[in-house]
Specification:
Elements (H helix, E strand, L loop, with lengths): L6 E4 L2 E4 L10 H5 L2 E9 L2 E2 L2 H14 L8 H14 L5 E9 L14 E8 L8 H4 L1 E10 L16 H12 L4 E6 L4 E4 L3 E6 L2 E5 L8 H12 L4 E4 L11 E6 L3 E8 L2 E2 L4 H15 L1
Parallel strand pairs: 7-8, 7-14, 11-12
Antiparallel strand pairs: 1-2, 1-6, 3-4, 3-5, 5-6, 8-9, 10-11, 10-13, 13-14, 14-15
Helix pairs in contact: 2-3
The structure holds 4'-deoxy-4'-aminopyridoxal-5'-phosphate.
Keywords: Amino-acid biosynthesis, Aminotransferase, Branched-chain amino acid biosynthesis, Pyridoxal phosphate, Transferase
Cofactor: pyridoxal 5'-phosphate
Catalytic activity: L-valine + 2-oxoglutarate = 3-methyl-2-oxobutanoate + L-glutamate; L-isoleucine + 2-oxoglutarate = (S)-3-methyl-2-oxopentanoate + L-glutamate; L-leucine + 2-oxoglutarate = 4-methyl-2-oxopentanoate + L-glutamate
């Protein structure tokens, strides 16, 4: 992915894609002092750009690495990098991290907080799952306690278990993995939040140990506007059997129907299809 044409915004400057490099003694590479955002631009406009820029700043604060830019500056940088690459429909990746400094060790206050923003064309995250429903594995890894990590941060360190979960899922022919949290409650997929339908009502995990996704919040608003009851609550493993429909939400995943989690099967039902269609219309509006 590094050897291609294009431009990447790095620390206030537009650099050639191939030249957007960091030193091997970059703090983030050794100690995961890195936070990021995944966003999508539709028809020339990033969906909820300010919300993503704000979450990036919040993630940085949570990791004790204040990012030296404002929401407005980050928004402008994202628009600039899209324009520099001539893209109107693209995925946008902002990443803030502690760079190389005078010293190398766990403490990082002497290392500069850097920011880079790249963008590229990225289609459906789960391929044709939009129609038949994605197949999910159940991960053996658990989302950690909020006393272990700041779960509200979109922090690189939190993705190690996601990568391991996803590798295990793919080895079994699944497109992703669903993880439980440290208490055994249903948590999220490796890059998306999860929703279930039963008797016309919607159930989704409380965001008390997971990322409270921007797509998740958008979809909850959409459901409530339709008069559908949404229960944000702790969901037990034993409940999976009783749910009729299931879908994932995320910037990359958008609204993706789920057909199977482990041995549990779900139908790609009317509500799932309606929400997927409405979300598509909303982001392009
Ligand atoms: N959970 C995890 C672990 C994620 O990586 C993502 C993607 N950012 C989400 C949930 C969904 O968040 P959003 O809707 O803000 O993209």
């Amino acid at each position: 992915f590094d050897d291609r044409d294009g431009k990447i915004w790095m620390d206030g400057e537009m650099v050639e894609w191939r030249e957007a490099k960091v030193h091997i003694l970059t703090h983030a590479l050794h100690y995961a002092s890195s936070v990021f955002e995944g966003e999508r631009c539709y028809n020339g406009k990033i969906f909820k750009s300010s919300e993503h820029s704000q979450r990036l700043l919040t993630s940085g604060d949570l990791l004790d690495m204040p990012i030296p830019y404002t929401v407005e500056q980050i928004n402008a940088a994202k628009d600039a990098v899209l324009a520099a690459n001539g893209l109107t429909d693209a995925y946008v990746r902002a990443v803030a991290f502690r760079g190389a400094g005078e010293e190398m060790g766990v403490a990082s206050l002497a290392n500069p907080v850097r920011l880079a923003i790249a963008c590229w064309t990225w289609g459906a995250y789960y391929g044709d799952a939009k129609f038949k429903g994605a197949k999910l594995d159940i991960s053996k890894w658990k989302r950690p306690s909020p006393e272990t990590i700041p779960h509200a941060a979109k922090a690189a360190g939190l993705y190690m278990i996601c990568t391991m979960s996803k590798h295990a899922a793919q080895a079994k022919g699944c497109s992703d993995a669903m993880m439980f949290d440290y208490r055994g409650y249903v948590a999220e997929a490796t890059g998306a939040n999860i929703f279930f339908v039963k008797n016309g009502e919607v159930h989704t995990p409380l965001p008390d140990a997971i990322l409270n996704g921007i797509t998740r919040q958008t979809v909850i608003e959409m459901l409530k506007a339709k008069g559908i009851t949404v229960h944000e609550r702790h969901i037990e493993a034993a409940e999976l059997e009783g749910f009729e429909q299931c879908w994932l939400t995320g910037t990359a995943a958008e609204v993706t129907p789920v057909g199977q989690i482990g041995d549990y099967h779900f139908e790609v039902g009317a509500l799932t299809r309606d929400i997927a269609t409405e979300y598509e219309a909303l982001v392009r509006a």
